[in-house]
Amino acid sequence: MPLQLMKLFISATTETTVTPENTRFFYVTSAQTDAGSTLTVDAASFFADDGSAVTELPELAADNSYFNVYVNGVLQMNGLSTYTPGATGVGSLAFDVPADGEPILSGSPVVLEVVNYAPESTITIDT
Fold it and tell me: Quick check: is 5 in a domain?
């Protein structure tokens, strides 16, 4: 019998499930925020989907999350806002109103949407 390479035959499959966790927070401005200013909303100033008070803004999962900000129902550009997770006094949303733009009027709704993904993978190896 001639010499031959002996090796294992291995087959593998991976099944990944990605489950999003979408959380929305609501705020209604109490004063006008002029162009060139920053609207800062503390975690405790938001209320949840069910109307309950919010005490903490969730962490953003590294490489598996994002947040959106809507003012008056319009999605805003990402570079205008800064999201800081955490409890009252730490967690906040800061939104920079462009200097050459229009002010945010008193009574304007602000919606913060936080989406975290929780991927889970199952690997099956057959030998």
Answer: no
**How open is the CA angle 66-71-76, to the nearest 5 degrees?**
45
φ/ψ region of 118 (left if φ > 0, alpha if ψ in -120 to 50, else beta) reads beta
As for how many domains the chain has, the answer is 1
Residue tagged 């006008």 (tokens): 32
Domain presence at residue 39: yes
**Global pTM value:** 0.82
Report the alpha-carbon distance of residue 118 to residue 62 in Å, rounded: 11
6 assigned to some structural domain: no
Question: Which tens digits make up the pLDDT trace of 61-88?
Answer: 988 999 999 999 999 999 999 999 999 8
Provide the token pair at 10. Answer: 């291995």
> Which CATH number is 73's domain given?
2.60.40
The sign of the dihedral angle between the CA atoms of 47, 76, 63, 19 is: positive
113 - beta bridge partners?
A: 24, 68
Direct distance between the N- and C-terminal alpha carbons of the chain, in angstroms, rounded to an integer? 25
Residue 70: which domain range?
14-126
